[in-house]
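Hello again, I could really use a second opinion on something today. My current little project is about how a certain protein chain folds up. You're getting the sequence in one-letter code plus the fold written as C-alpha coordinates. Here's the protein in full, and shout if anything looks odd to you:
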Amino acid sequence: MATSTILDKYGNPMKVDEKKLSKESEASVRKLTNKFGDIFTSELTPQRLKRIIQAANMGQPDEFYKLAEVMEEHDAHYAAVLSSRKRAVSSLNIQVKAASEDPKDVEIADAVRTLTEQPEFIDMLDDALDALGKGSSAIEMLWDTTSTRWTPKEFVWRDPRLFRFHPDKRRTLQMKRDDMEEGEDLTYGKFITHMPKLKSGLQIRTGLARVAAWSYMLKGYTLRGWAAYNEVFGMPLRVGKFDKSASEEDKAKLLQAVIGIANDAAGIIPKEMDIEFITNSSRGGDSLFERFSEYLDKQVSKGVLGQTMTTDDGSSLAQAEVHNDVREDIQRSDARQAASTLSRDVVRPFVDFNFGVQSAYPVILIEVVEAEDLERMANVLGTLVPLGLRVQMSEVRSRIGFSEPEKGTELLGDPSDQDKAGKSSNTQQAKSLHSEEDPFEEIGQEELADWQPQVSDLLAPVRQLAKSAGSYEEFLEGLSDIANEMDDSALAQKITDATQKATAFGDDRG
Protein backbone atom coordinates (compact mmCIF):
# COMPACT_ATOMS: atom_id res chain seq x y z
CA MET A 1 0.00 0.00 0.00
CA ALA A 2 2.54 2.60 -1.10
CA THR A 3 -0.13 5.05 -2.24
CA SER A 4 -3.89 4.84 -2.75
CA THR A 5 -6.36 7.18 -4.43
CA ILE A 6 -9.32 8.03 -2.23
CA LEU A 7 -11.71 10.92 -1.79
CA ASP A 8 -11.40 13.44 1.00
CA LYS A 9 -14.36 14.67 3.06
CA TYR A 10 -15.17 17.19 0.32
CA GLY A 11 -15.28 14.52 -2.38
CA ASN A 12 -12.00 15.53 -4.04
CA PRO A 13 -9.60 12.79 -5.21
CA MET A 14 -6.29 12.82 -3.40
CA LYS A 15 -3.11 10.82 -2.97
CA VAL A 16 -2.15 9.32 0.37
CA ASP A 17 1.55 8.83 0.97
CA GLU A 18 2.34 6.32 3.72
CA LYS A 19 5.63 8.10 4.52
CA LYS A 20 3.74 11.31 5.15
CA LEU A 21 1.28 9.51 7.41
CA SER A 22 3.93 7.84 9.55
CA LYS A 23 6.06 10.96 10.19
CA GLU A 24 5.41 14.20 12.04
CA SER A 25 4.17 17.07 9.91
CA GLU A 26 6.85 19.56 8.91
CA ALA A 27 5.27 22.54 10.67
CA SER A 28 5.55 20.85 14.05
CA VAL A 29 9.34 20.56 13.85
CA ARG A 30 10.27 23.74 11.94
CA LYS A 31 11.28 27.11 13.33
CA LEU A 32 7.65 28.06 13.59
CA THR A 33 7.37 26.34 16.97
CA ASN A 34 10.23 28.44 18.39
CA LYS A 35 8.08 31.53 18.09
CA PHE A 36 5.84 30.18 20.83
CA GLY A 37 8.51 30.13 23.51
CA ASP A 38 7.85 33.71 24.57
CA ILE A 39 6.43 34.39 28.03
CA PHE A 40 2.83 35.48 28.26
CA THR A 41 2.56 37.86 31.17
CA SER A 42 -0.45 37.24 33.39
CA GLU A 43 -0.87 40.98 34.00
CA LEU A 44 -4.19 41.43 32.22
CA THR A 45 -5.86 44.82 31.86
CA PRO A 46 -9.22 45.64 30.28
CA GLN A 47 -7.45 47.35 27.37
CA ARG A 48 -5.18 44.37 26.73
CA LEU A 49 -8.01 41.85 26.98
CA LYS A 50 -10.03 43.91 24.51
CA ARG A 51 -7.11 43.89 22.05
CA ILE A 52 -6.67 40.11 22.41
CA ILE A 53 -10.35 39.45 21.69
CA GLN A 54 -10.47 41.87 18.76
CA ALA A 55 -7.37 40.30 17.23
CA ALA A 56 -8.95 36.85 17.52
CA ASN A 57 -12.08 38.13 15.76
CA MET A 58 -9.88 39.41 12.93
CA GLY A 59 -8.28 36.01 12.38
CA GLN A 60 -5.25 36.37 14.67
CA PRO A 61 -6.11 34.22 17.72
CA ASP A 62 -2.57 33.30 18.87
CA GLU A 63 -2.67 35.60 21.92
CA PHE A 64 -6.12 34.30 22.81
CA TYR A 65 -4.90 30.70 22.68
CA LYS A 66 -2.04 31.56 25.04
CA LEU A 67 -4.41 33.41 27.36
CA ALA A 68 -6.68 30.36 27.48
CA GLU A 69 -3.72 28.19 28.45
CA VAL A 70 -2.57 30.62 31.14
CA MET A 71 -6.08 30.75 32.59
CA GLU A 72 -6.03 26.99 33.12
CA GLU A 73 -2.66 27.23 34.85
CA HIS A 74 -3.35 30.23 37.11
CA ASP A 75 -7.06 30.03 38.00
CA ALA A 76 -7.76 26.94 40.08
CA HIS A 77 -11.53 27.31 39.82
CA TYR A 78 -11.60 27.67 36.04
CA ALA A 79 -9.20 24.74 35.69
CA ALA A 80 -11.41 22.59 37.95
CA VAL A 81 -14.74 23.27 36.21
CA LEU A 82 -13.24 22.97 32.72
CA SER A 83 -11.59 19.67 33.68
CA SER A 84 -14.90 18.49 35.11
CA ARG A 85 -16.65 19.20 31.82
CA LYS A 86 -13.95 17.38 29.85
CA ARG A 87 -13.99 14.33 32.13
CA ALA A 88 -17.77 14.19 31.94
CA VAL A 89 -17.30 13.07 28.32
CA SER A 90 -13.92 11.32 28.29
CA SER A 91 -15.00 9.05 31.17
CA LEU A 92 -17.95 7.64 29.17
CA ASN A 93 -17.81 4.31 27.36
CA ILE A 94 -17.03 4.42 23.65
CA GLN A 95 -19.19 2.18 21.45
CA VAL A 96 -19.00 1.32 17.76
CA LYS A 97 -22.12 0.78 15.65
CA ALA A 98 -21.77 -1.17 12.40
CA ALA A 99 -23.13 0.31 9.18
CA SER A 100 -25.43 -2.72 8.76
CA GLU A 101 -25.81 -6.36 9.74
CA ASP A 102 -23.91 -7.44 6.63
CA PRO A 103 -20.94 -9.68 7.60
CA LYS A 104 -18.51 -7.31 5.87
CA ASP A 105 -19.83 -4.30 7.79
CA VAL A 106 -19.69 -6.28 11.02
CA GLU A 107 -16.05 -7.20 10.31
CA ILE A 108 -15.16 -3.54 9.70
CA ALA A 109 -16.94 -2.48 12.89
CA ASP A 110 -15.01 -5.10 14.89
CA ALA A 111 -11.72 -3.71 13.54
CA VAL A 112 -12.74 -0.16 14.50
CA ARG A 113 -13.81 -1.39 17.95
CA THR A 114 -10.37 -2.91 18.49
CA LEU A 115 -8.84 0.47 17.62
CA THR A 116 -11.03 2.38 20.08
CA GLU A 117 -10.11 0.01 22.91
CA GLN A 118 -6.44 1.00 22.77
CA PRO A 119 -5.28 3.15 25.74
CA GLU A 120 -3.80 5.74 23.35
CA PHE A 121 -7.18 6.26 21.72
CA ILE A 122 -8.96 6.77 25.04
CA ASP A 123 -6.37 9.29 26.26
CA MET A 124 -6.59 11.15 22.97
CA LEU A 125 -10.17 12.14 23.76
CA ASP A 126 -8.98 14.44 26.56
CA ASP A 127 -6.76 16.30 24.08
CA ALA A 128 -9.62 16.60 21.59
CA LEU A 129 -11.80 18.16 24.29
CA ASP A 130 -9.20 20.91 24.72
CA ALA A 131 -11.36 22.57 22.07
CA LEU A 132 -14.00 23.30 24.72
CA GLY A 133 -11.83 26.05 26.18
CA LYS A 134 -10.05 27.32 23.05
CA GLY A 135 -12.73 26.72 20.40
CA SER A 136 -10.71 24.20 18.38
CA SER A 137 -8.11 21.49 18.82
CA ALA A 138 -5.90 19.47 16.51
CA ILE A 139 -4.36 16.05 17.22
CA GLU A 140 -1.85 14.61 14.80
CA MET A 141 -2.07 10.88 14.10
CA LEU A 142 1.18 9.01 13.46
CA TRP A 143 0.26 5.85 11.57
CA ASP A 144 1.96 2.47 11.70
CA THR A 145 2.16 1.57 8.00
CA THR A 146 4.56 -1.34 8.41
CA SER A 147 1.92 -3.93 9.31
CA THR A 148 -0.81 -5.39 7.13
CA ARG A 149 -3.46 -3.19 8.74
CA TRP A 150 -2.60 0.50 9.04
CA THR A 151 -3.35 1.79 12.54
CA PRO A 152 -2.63 5.07 14.37
CA LYS A 153 0.19 4.25 16.77
CA GLU A 154 0.38 7.66 18.43
CA PHE A 155 -1.91 10.66 18.92
CA VAL A 156 -0.01 13.93 19.45
CA TRP A 157 -1.68 17.15 20.63
CA ARG A 158 -0.54 20.12 18.58
CA ASP A 159 -0.41 23.75 19.65
CA PRO A 160 -3.40 25.54 18.08
CA ARG A 161 -1.08 28.40 17.07
CA LEU A 162 0.36 26.08 14.41
CA PHE A 163 -2.92 26.37 12.51
CA ARG A 164 -5.16 28.98 10.98
CA PHE A 165 -8.75 28.94 9.78
CA HIS A 166 -9.39 28.69 6.07
CA PRO A 167 -10.39 32.15 4.76
CA ASP A 168 -13.49 30.79 3.01
CA LYS A 169 -14.29 27.57 4.89
CA ARG A 170 -14.38 29.08 8.35
CA ARG A 171 -14.65 25.73 10.19
CA THR A 172 -11.67 24.21 8.37
CA LEU A 173 -8.14 24.37 9.78
CA GLN A 174 -5.00 24.80 7.71
CA MET A 175 -1.35 24.38 8.64
CA LYS A 176 0.61 27.62 8.85
CA ARG A 177 3.67 27.96 6.59
CA ASP A 178 6.52 30.46 6.93
CA ASP A 179 6.95 30.63 3.18
CA MET A 180 3.26 31.04 2.38
CA GLU A 181 0.78 33.76 3.24
CA GLU A 182 -2.00 31.24 2.92
CA GLY A 183 -2.16 28.03 4.92
CA GLU A 184 -1.57 24.48 3.71
CA ASP A 185 -4.49 22.04 3.61
CA LEU A 186 -4.23 19.22 6.11
CA THR A 187 -3.40 15.77 4.78
CA TYR A 188 -6.37 13.45 4.74
CA GLY A 189 -6.32 11.03 7.68
CA LYS A 190 -3.45 12.91 9.36
CA PHE A 191 -5.24 15.15 11.86
CA ILE A 192 -8.23 15.04 14.18
CA THR A 193 -9.74 18.52 14.24
CA HIS A 194 -12.45 18.97 16.86
CA MET A 195 -14.51 22.16 16.71
CA PRO A 196 -17.47 21.94 19.09
CA LYS A 197 -20.50 24.05 18.26
CA LEU A 198 -21.10 25.77 21.59
CA LYS A 199 -22.73 28.83 20.04
CA SER A 200 -23.50 30.21 16.60
CA GLY A 201 -20.98 32.42 14.84
CA LEU A 202 -17.24 32.33 14.23
CA GLN A 203 -15.57 29.22 15.62
CA ILE A 204 -12.91 31.23 17.46
CA ARG A 205 -15.70 32.94 19.43
CA THR A 206 -17.14 29.70 20.79
CA GLY A 207 -14.39 28.80 23.28
CA LEU A 208 -15.33 28.77 26.95
CA ALA A 209 -12.14 30.69 27.76
CA ARG A 210 -13.70 33.67 25.99
CA VAL A 211 -16.67 33.54 28.37
CA ALA A 212 -14.46 33.22 31.46
CA ALA A 213 -11.78 35.73 30.41
CA TRP A 214 -13.49 38.80 31.87
CA SER A 215 -14.12 37.06 35.19
CA TYR A 216 -10.50 35.92 35.18
CA MET A 217 -9.29 39.49 34.71
CA LEU A 218 -11.57 40.93 37.40
CA LYS A 219 -10.63 38.15 39.79
CA GLY A 220 -6.96 39.04 39.28
CA TYR A 221 -7.66 42.61 40.37
CA THR A 222 -9.72 41.33 43.30
CA LEU A 223 -7.00 39.04 44.60
CA ARG A 224 -4.33 41.74 44.29
CA GLY A 225 -6.53 44.18 46.19
CA TRP A 226 -7.30 41.56 48.81
CA ALA A 227 -3.62 40.82 49.32
CA ALA A 228 -2.84 44.56 49.69
CA TYR A 229 -5.69 44.94 52.16
CA ASN A 230 -4.44 42.04 54.26
CA GLU A 231 -0.92 43.44 54.22
CA VAL A 232 -2.12 46.78 55.59
CA PHE A 233 -4.88 45.71 57.95
CA GLY A 234 -3.94 42.12 58.64
CA MET A 235 -1.43 43.04 61.34
CA PRO A 236 -1.91 45.65 64.06
CA LEU A 237 -0.10 48.98 63.92
CA ARG A 238 2.99 49.02 66.14
CA VAL A 239 3.83 52.23 67.95
CA GLY A 240 7.03 52.61 70.04
CA LYS A 241 7.01 55.02 72.97
CA PHE A 242 10.16 56.45 74.54
CA ASP A 243 10.91 58.80 77.41
CA LYS A 244 11.90 62.43 76.82
CA SER A 245 15.33 61.74 78.18
CA ALA A 246 15.97 58.96 75.64
CA SER A 247 19.07 59.40 73.54
CA GLU A 248 19.27 59.06 69.77
CA GLU A 249 20.82 55.63 70.24
CA ASP A 250 17.88 54.55 72.43
CA LYS A 251 15.44 55.80 69.79
CA ALA A 252 17.24 53.84 67.08
CA LYS A 253 17.09 50.65 69.17
CA LEU A 254 13.35 51.15 69.77
CA LEU A 255 12.71 51.66 66.04
CA GLN A 256 14.70 48.53 65.26
CA ALA A 257 12.61 46.58 67.79
CA VAL A 258 9.31 47.89 66.33
CA ILE A 259 10.35 46.91 62.80
CA GLY A 260 11.81 43.54 63.78
CA ILE A 261 8.95 42.42 65.99
CA ALA A 262 6.71 42.00 62.91
CA ASN A 263 8.95 39.22 61.60
CA ASP A 264 10.46 37.81 64.78
CA ALA A 265 7.39 38.16 67.01
CA ALA A 266 9.84 38.77 69.86
CA GLY A 267 12.29 41.38 71.02
CA ILE A 268 13.77 43.19 74.01
CA ILE A 269 13.66 46.89 74.86
CA PRO A 270 14.65 48.92 77.94
CA LYS A 271 12.13 49.07 80.74
CA GLU A 272 11.68 52.79 80.20
CA MET A 273 10.41 52.17 76.64
CA ASP A 274 7.06 50.78 75.53
CA ILE A 275 5.58 49.24 72.33
CA GLU A 276 1.81 49.55 71.78
CA PHE A 277 -0.20 47.44 69.29
CA ILE A 278 -3.15 49.31 67.78
CA THR A 279 -5.70 47.03 66.08
CA ASN A 280 -7.91 48.20 63.22
CA SER A 281 -11.50 48.49 64.36
CA SER A 282 -12.93 48.62 60.81
CA ARG A 283 -14.64 45.43 59.62
CA GLY A 284 -16.16 44.28 56.33
CA GLY A 285 -13.44 45.19 53.86
CA ASP A 286 -12.04 41.66 53.71
CA SER A 287 -15.48 40.09 53.23
CA LEU A 288 -16.10 42.42 50.28
CA PHE A 289 -13.16 40.94 48.37
CA GLU A 290 -14.22 37.42 49.30
CA ARG A 291 -17.83 37.87 48.19
CA PHE A 292 -16.79 39.38 44.85
CA SER A 293 -14.31 36.55 44.23
CA GLU A 294 -17.00 33.96 44.98
CA TYR A 295 -19.44 35.78 42.68
CA LEU A 296 -16.95 35.65 39.80
CA ASP A 297 -16.33 31.92 40.39
CA LYS A 298 -20.07 31.28 40.21
CA GLN A 299 -20.31 33.08 36.88
CA VAL A 300 -17.52 30.88 35.52
CA SER A 301 -19.33 27.77 36.81
CA LYS A 302 -22.51 28.84 35.03
CA GLY A 303 -20.64 29.46 31.80
CA VAL A 304 -18.68 26.19 31.83
CA LEU A 305 -20.98 23.73 33.59
CA GLY A 306 -24.33 25.44 33.19
CA GLN A 307 -24.92 25.38 36.95
CA THR A 308 -23.32 26.17 40.29
CA MET A 309 -24.93 23.78 42.79
CA THR A 310 -22.34 21.02 42.60
CA THR A 311 -19.30 23.31 42.68
CA ASP A 312 -19.94 26.30 44.92
CA ASP A 313 -23.04 26.41 47.06
CA GLY A 314 -22.94 23.08 48.82
CA SER A 315 -26.73 23.03 48.66
CA SER A 316 -29.03 20.16 49.36
CA LEU A 317 -28.94 16.95 47.32
CA ALA A 318 -32.40 17.62 45.90
CA GLN A 319 -31.29 21.01 44.55
CA ALA A 320 -28.11 19.56 43.09
CA GLU A 321 -30.09 16.83 41.30
CA VAL A 322 -32.30 19.45 39.66
CA HIS A 323 -29.28 21.36 38.37
CA ASN A 324 -27.50 18.18 37.29
CA ASP A 325 -30.23 17.76 34.67
CA VAL A 326 -28.91 20.88 32.92
CA ARG A 327 -25.34 19.62 33.16
CA GLU A 328 -26.36 16.24 31.76
CA ASP A 329 -27.89 18.01 28.78
CA ILE A 330 -24.55 19.74 28.12
CA GLN A 331 -22.75 16.43 28.62
CA ARG A 332 -24.91 14.74 25.99
CA SER A 333 -24.24 17.51 23.48
CA ASP A 334 -20.46 17.41 24.06
CA ALA A 335 -20.43 13.60 23.76
CA ARG A 336 -22.45 13.63 20.54
CA GLN A 337 -20.18 16.22 18.89
CA ALA A 338 -16.99 14.44 20.00
CA ALA A 339 -18.31 11.14 18.61
CA SER A 340 -19.10 12.83 15.30
CA THR A 341 -15.54 14.19 15.06
CA LEU A 342 -13.97 10.79 15.78
CA SER A 343 -16.23 9.06 13.25
CA ARG A 344 -15.19 11.57 10.57
CA ASP A 345 -11.47 12.00 11.28
CA VAL A 346 -10.48 8.57 12.64
CA VAL A 347 -12.98 5.92 11.60
CA ARG A 348 -13.38 6.93 7.97
CA PRO A 349 -9.62 7.15 7.15
CA PHE A 350 -8.98 3.91 9.05
CA VAL A 351 -11.63 2.10 7.00
CA ASP A 352 -10.52 3.68 3.70
CA PHE A 353 -6.87 2.73 4.24
CA ASN A 354 -7.60 -0.87 5.23
CA PHE A 355 -10.90 -1.86 3.57
CA GLY A 356 -11.29 0.63 0.74
CA VAL A 357 -13.97 3.25 0.17
CA GLN A 358 -17.34 2.14 1.53
CA SER A 359 -20.88 3.25 0.75
CA ALA A 360 -21.58 3.39 4.51
CA TYR A 361 -19.21 3.53 7.47
CA PRO A 362 -19.41 2.43 11.10
CA VAL A 363 -19.88 5.25 13.60
CA ILE A 364 -18.63 5.90 17.10
CA LEU A 365 -21.19 6.48 19.84
CA ILE A 366 -20.44 8.11 23.19
CA GLU A 367 -23.69 7.83 25.08
CA VAL A 368 -24.65 9.04 28.53
CA VAL A 369 -26.26 6.19 30.49
CA GLU A 370 -28.82 7.44 32.98
CA ALA A 371 -28.42 6.17 36.51
CA GLU A 372 -31.27 3.90 37.53
CA ASP A 373 -33.37 4.77 40.55
CA LEU A 374 -33.30 1.24 41.97
CA GLU A 375 -35.61 2.04 44.88
CA ARG A 376 -38.24 3.47 42.55
CA MET A 377 -37.94 0.53 40.15
CA ALA A 378 -38.27 -1.94 43.03
CA ASN A 379 -41.43 -0.19 44.24
CA VAL A 380 -42.94 -0.25 40.74
CA LEU A 381 -42.15 -3.94 40.24
CA GLY A 382 -43.38 -4.82 43.73
CA THR A 383 -46.71 -3.12 42.99
CA LEU A 384 -47.41 -4.11 39.37
CA VAL A 385 -45.97 -7.64 39.13
CA PRO A 386 -48.48 -9.07 41.69
CA LEU A 387 -51.25 -7.42 39.63
CA GLY A 388 -50.24 -9.38 36.54
CA LEU A 389 -47.51 -7.30 34.88
CA ARG A 390 -45.16 -9.61 33.02
CA VAL A 391 -41.51 -8.48 33.00
CA GLN A 392 -38.45 -10.29 31.66
CA MET A 393 -36.04 -11.18 34.44
CA SER A 394 -33.08 -10.62 32.10
CA GLU A 395 -34.20 -7.03 31.38
CA VAL A 396 -34.44 -6.24 35.09
CA ARG A 397 -30.99 -7.75 35.70
CA SER A 398 -29.42 -5.68 32.91
CA ARG A 399 -30.89 -2.42 34.21
CA ILE A 400 -29.60 -2.98 37.74
CA GLY A 401 -26.25 -4.33 36.52
CA PHE A 402 -26.57 -7.99 37.57
CA SER A 403 -25.57 -10.86 35.29
CA GLU A 404 -27.38 -14.16 34.70
CA PRO A 405 -26.47 -16.59 37.52
CA GLU A 406 -24.43 -19.59 36.49
CA LYS A 407 -25.42 -23.14 37.29
CA GLY A 408 -24.21 -24.45 40.60
CA THR A 409 -23.46 -21.03 42.11
CA GLU A 410 -24.79 -20.01 45.50
CA LEU A 411 -27.75 -17.68 45.09
CA LEU A 412 -29.12 -14.98 47.33
CA GLY A 413 -32.79 -15.22 48.28
CA ASP A 414 -35.41 -14.64 50.95
CA PRO A 415 -34.41 -16.74 54.01
CA SER A 416 -38.07 -17.37 54.80
CA ASP A 417 -38.61 -18.84 51.35
CA GLN A 418 -35.60 -21.09 51.82
CA ASP A 419 -36.97 -22.26 55.18
CA LYS A 420 -40.36 -22.97 53.61
CA ALA A 421 -38.74 -24.86 50.78
CA GLY A 422 -36.67 -26.87 53.27
CA LYS A 423 -39.71 -27.71 55.39
CA SER A 424 -41.73 -28.69 52.32
CA SER A 425 -38.91 -30.93 51.14
CA ASN A 426 -38.64 -32.53 54.58
CA THR A 427 -42.40 -33.13 54.68
CA GLN A 428 -42.42 -34.76 51.27
CA GLN A 429 -39.44 -36.90 52.23
CA ALA A 430 -41.14 -37.97 55.48
CA LYS A 431 -44.32 -38.90 53.62
CA SER A 432 -42.31 -40.90 51.12
CA LEU A 433 -40.47 -42.82 53.82
CA HIS A 434 -43.66 -43.31 55.80
CA SER A 435 -45.54 -44.72 52.79
CA GLU A 436 -42.72 -47.12 52.07
CA GLU A 437 -42.41 -48.41 55.63
CA ASP A 438 -46.03 -48.29 56.98
CA PRO A 439 -48.46 -50.92 55.46
CA PHE A 440 -51.41 -49.01 57.00
CA GLU A 441 -51.26 -46.64 54.02
CA GLU A 442 -52.33 -49.56 51.75
CA ILE A 443 -55.67 -50.05 53.55
CA GLY A 444 -58.56 -48.95 51.32
CA GLN A 445 -56.47 -48.84 48.15
CA GLU A 446 -58.02 -52.08 46.86
CA GLU A 447 -61.57 -50.89 47.59
CA LEU A 448 -60.90 -47.55 45.81
CA ALA A 449 -59.57 -49.26 42.69
CA ASP A 450 -63.12 -49.98 41.33
CA TRP A 451 -65.01 -46.99 42.75
CA GLN A 452 -66.96 -46.32 39.53
CA PRO A 453 -69.09 -49.54 39.65
CA GLN A 454 -69.71 -48.91 43.38
CA VAL A 455 -71.41 -45.56 42.81
CA SER A 456 -73.05 -46.47 39.49
CA ASP A 457 -76.21 -47.99 41.13
CA LEU A 458 -76.24 -45.18 43.70
CA LEU A 459 -76.31 -42.40 41.08
CA ALA A 460 -78.51 -44.17 38.47
CA PRO A 461 -81.80 -42.58 39.73
CA VAL A 462 -80.21 -39.13 39.79
CA ARG A 463 -79.08 -39.44 36.18
CA GLN A 464 -82.54 -40.61 35.16
CA LEU A 465 -84.21 -37.66 36.93
CA ALA A 466 -81.81 -35.20 35.23
CA LYS A 467 -82.83 -36.58 31.81
CA SER A 468 -86.58 -36.49 32.46
CA ALA A 469 -86.84 -33.13 34.35
CA GLY A 470 -88.04 -30.21 32.26
CA SER A 471 -86.39 -27.51 34.38
CA TYR A 472 -83.88 -26.94 37.14
CA GLU A 473 -86.68 -26.36 39.67
CA GLU A 474 -88.40 -29.64 38.68
CA PHE A 475 -85.06 -31.45 39.11
CA LEU A 476 -84.66 -30.08 42.65
CA GLU A 477 -88.20 -31.09 43.62
CA GLY A 478 -87.70 -34.66 42.32
CA LEU A 479 -84.55 -35.31 44.41
CA SER A 480 -86.54 -35.89 47.58
CA ASP A 481 -88.67 -38.58 45.88
CA ILE A 482 -85.82 -40.77 44.56
CA ALA A 483 -83.92 -41.30 47.84
CA ASN A 484 -85.45 -44.76 48.28
CA GLU A 485 -84.53 -45.75 44.71
CA MET A 486 -80.75 -45.12 45.21
CA ASP A 487 -78.89 -48.46 45.76
CA ASP A 488 -75.86 -48.02 48.07
CA SER A 489 -75.27 -51.70 48.91
CA ALA A 490 -72.10 -52.11 46.81
CA LEU A 491 -70.51 -48.97 48.27
CA ALA A 492 -71.50 -49.92 51.81
CA GLN A 493 -69.95 -53.37 51.40
CA LYS A 494 -66.60 -51.90 50.32
CA ILE A 495 -66.59 -49.50 53.25
CA THR A 496 -67.34 -52.37 55.63
CA ASP A 497 -64.48 -54.44 54.20
CA ALA A 498 -62.02 -51.53 54.59
CA THR A 499 -63.17 -50.89 58.17
CA GLN A 500 -62.65 -54.53 59.14
CA LYS A 501 -59.10 -54.47 57.68
CA ALA A 502 -58.23 -51.36 59.61
CA THR A 503 -59.58 -52.83 62.84
CA ALA A 504 -57.64 -56.04 62.33
CA PHE A 505 -54.43 -54.05 61.58
CA GLY A 506 -54.88 -51.98 64.67
CA ASP A 507 -55.44 -55.02 66.88
CA ASP A 508 -52.37 -56.64 65.41
CA ARG A 509 -50.16 -53.62 66.28
CA GLY A 510 -51.58 -53.49 69.80
Summary: The CA atoms of residues 205 and 483 lie 105 Å apart. The radius of gyration is 44 Å.
